[in-house]
Specification:
The chain is α/β, with parallel strands linked by helices. It is built from 27 helices and 16 strands. Helix 18 crosses helix 19 and helix 22 crosses helix 27. The longest helix has 28 residues.
């Protein structure tokens, strides 16, 4: 049967080597029995590789037993009613899995057990197990009749008892070891997949069970193989369960595992392979309507696959999903311009759908504490002012997010979670060559850290796949034109400033009022457009030359906010020290100035060069009025800065 464009590992009808993208790690898994464990997040091809490996072993012969016989793998379903507490012990799962696998093997082809003496020895070991008579009788019957039960069948049966009964059984598992050593004397290979999904369904709110059950399975496989070299269990385990796994056996287990990690070049080769195999096109460029796609908001064109890759979340499934949706689109007969526009629109729309619905609200929702519902995710999207954010702007957005969701700010970490799952990137210097580049955590880089990820002095990037979703949620979204955003992309430091700079000019005597003002002002401003604020208390470094740093700050600013008071006018600071130095820049429009009065000074008392526009007046005599004035001024300044940097969003990337 000819395959259509596949998205999931279960959709491949042809699982021969010619249908699989091969790299060194995948070849090692397919060609060697020393690698039996696949560790990866969802969407990296674990199921397809397990299916292919089983097919290879079945075709090789050599007298080995392959379990299951009549289906591709044990999908590790847990049937019946299970205890909802007390199952978070890794050792409990290790021993339960170990017993379940041995029992399953014994119910398959073990003809020597039919010898009377041997059977009596086997049954004596079973009768010594610390479990009820009904289980022991059923197990002996199923061994005698070669019932070919799967490991998950016995795992379900063991765990359906009380936790106390399970622990009593586990204490007698030395008899399980005896059964393994005495009865399993020829090669047997077992295939187990989908255990993570079963745990998600059975224990939807218990991360400890989700992690430790899979870790227990890994330790069971190690223990079985260490005690009986005839037993090999081929299994898939989620990378999220592997992350943070601490055990004396970790390095040995890792040596038996393949950690599936696909970089850009491998994903591209995989995509090209799929295009040639499942479509009438000969290259990704043909499928995507051309070699280049224009990035309208940065005014540049980029490689068409690179554009698609940036809108994926870096997994094989997300890449193939985008490719499949493009393949379904009717681009034949369109002009080159129409094809480019259609492909761009599809990638933007489907990338957002994949990142939001399938990934953040689907695959990763189970691991999130703050962004654990659609309402919270959409609330955060509505707060995002731009695709490029400073650490300070993240703090302001997080404050607003906590306010509108009713969460405690100290205990909610929306951006730490976005960063951890790869939807919030950072700008950093590469240790290899010192170049500044962009990094989004890839699927295999997941960790369990929920706090302490975001830092005030860094630049953060919203994943391109979220842009369409953000624009649906809010009217104004500033697409920063400084750089094309995407994993491993370069970061240009020249040209237009990444964030507009607002310079705060004030007299020293007014500092208490300015400090109070900025507490109310900054969060509102950062919610409109991410900015840098030059304020001497924040910006002058210890040991810096004060006057020089002030001059540098003023000249680099897009707007100067001058705070005027009787004290400042009396001191001559505005007229003599500030205006004298910057009169020319003011007249030429290189420095925009906004005057704000913070006492009862009359606007007519302002120097002439500050009277071009009506001065803002802060009502300092009322706390509520002062707060409102500060927020209103922040919105006005934010709108002004937005207008000065307006970018059309019709071709956002």
């Amino acid at each position: 049967m000819q395959d259509t464009w596949p998205i999931d590992g279960t959709q491949h009808h042809d699982i021969g080597r010619q249908s699989i993208y091969l790299n060194h790690a995948i070849t090692a898994f397919l060609d060697s029995d020393r690698k039996t464990i696949l560790i990866a997040p969802k969407g990296m091809g674990k199921t397809l590789l397990l299916r292919a490996k089983k097919r290879i072993l079945e075709g090789a012969g050599h007298g080995r037993t392959v379990i299951p016989r009549h289906q591709e793998y044990d999908d590790a379903q847990l049937h019946g009613s299970l205890p909802q507490s007390g199952l978070n012990d890794m050792d409990l799962w290790k021993d339960a899995w170990r017993a379940a696998i041995i029992f399953s093997i014994l119910t398959h082809n073990c003809p020597h057990i039919n010898e009377t003496t041997q059977r009596e020895i086997v049954f004596q070991q079973i009768d010594s197990l610390g479990i009820d008579e009904d289980f022991r009788s059923r197990l002996k019957h199923e061994i005698s009749n070669s019932a070919e039960q799967l490991p998950s069948y016995y795992l379900s049966s063991i765990l359906s008892r009380s936790v106390g009964a399970v622990r009593q059984f586990i204490r007698s598992c030395n008899h399980v070891d005896a059964l393994s050593q005495r009865c399993i004397v020829s090669d047997v290979c077992l295939f187990i997949d989908g255990f993570d999904q079963t745990l998600t369904e059975k224990f939807p709110a218990d991360l400890a069970v989700w992690r430790n059950a899979q870790r227990g399975l890994l330790r069971a496989i190690h223990r079985l193989n260490a005690h009986n070299r005839h037993i090999k269990v081929f299994v898939s385990v989620r990378q999220e369960a592997w992350a943070g796994f601490e055990s004396d056996d970790r390095e040995v287990i890792k040596g038996k595992a393949v950690l599936l990690e696909h970089n850009f070049h491998e994903l591209r080769a995989m995509f090209e392979h799929a295009v040639r195999r499942y479509t009438t096109y000969t290259s990704s460029a043909e499928l995507l309507g051309g070699e280049k796609i224009k990035n309208g908001w940065c005014g540049a064109s980029e490689d068409s696959f690179q554009y698609l890759y940036r809108h994926s979340i870096g997994s094989a499934r997300s890449i193939m999903n985008l490719g499949g949706r493009i393949h379904e689109a009717a681009i034949a007969g369109l002009s080159p311009e129409q094809r480019e526009e259609l492909v761009r629109e599809k990638i933007n729309a489907f990338g957002a759908e994949n990142a939001l619905d399938d990934y953040l609200l689907g695959q990763r929702a189970f691991f999130l504490k703050t962004l654990n519902s659609e309402d919270r995710v959409r609330a955060l999207l509505r707060c995002l002012p731009s695709n490029v954010l400073s650490g300070r702007s993240l703090t302001s957005v997080a404050h607003e997010f906590a306010r509108i969701t009713g969460l405690d700010f100290a205990d909610c970490h929306p951006f730490c979670e976005l960063h951890n799952v790869g939807l919030l990137g950072t700008v950093a210097e590469r240790p290899v060559d010192g170049k500044v580049s962009q990094h989004f955590n890839q699927p295999h880089e997941f960790s369990w850290q929920h706090g302490g990820v975001v830092h005030q002095d860094r630049t953060y990037l919203v994943h391109p796949s979220l842009h369409a979703a953000v624009i649906r949620e809010r009217a104004r979204y500033h697409l920063n034109p400084s750089n094309i955003i995407g994993h491993t992309g370069t970061w240009r430091m020249s040209g237009i400033r990444v964030f507009p700079l607002l310079f705060i000019s004030h007299a020293t005597a007014d500092k208490p009022t300015i400090d109070k003002f900025l507490r109310h002002f900054e969060d509102t401003l950062q919610l409109t457009i991410p900015c840098e604020i030059w304020y001497d208390s924040w910006s002058i470094r210890v040991g810096g030359r004060i006057q020089q740093e002030i001059e540098h700050g003023v000249r680099g600013s897009e707007l100067v906010l001058v705070f005027v008071s009787k004290e400042s006018l009396k001191s001559g600071w505005v007229e003599k020290e500030w205006r004298a130095k910057h009169q020319q820049e003011i007249e030429q429009g290189r420095i925009r100035v906004l005057a704000t009065i913070i006492d009862d000074t009359s606007p007519s008392a302002l120097p002439e060069f500050l009277r071009e526009k009506k001065a803002k007046v802060l009502r300092v005599d009322s706390a509520r009025a002062f707060l409102k004035d500060a927020q209103d001024l922040a919105r006005d300044i934010g709108e002004y800065l937005l207008e000065s940097r307006v970018v059309q969003t019709s071709q956002f990337g």
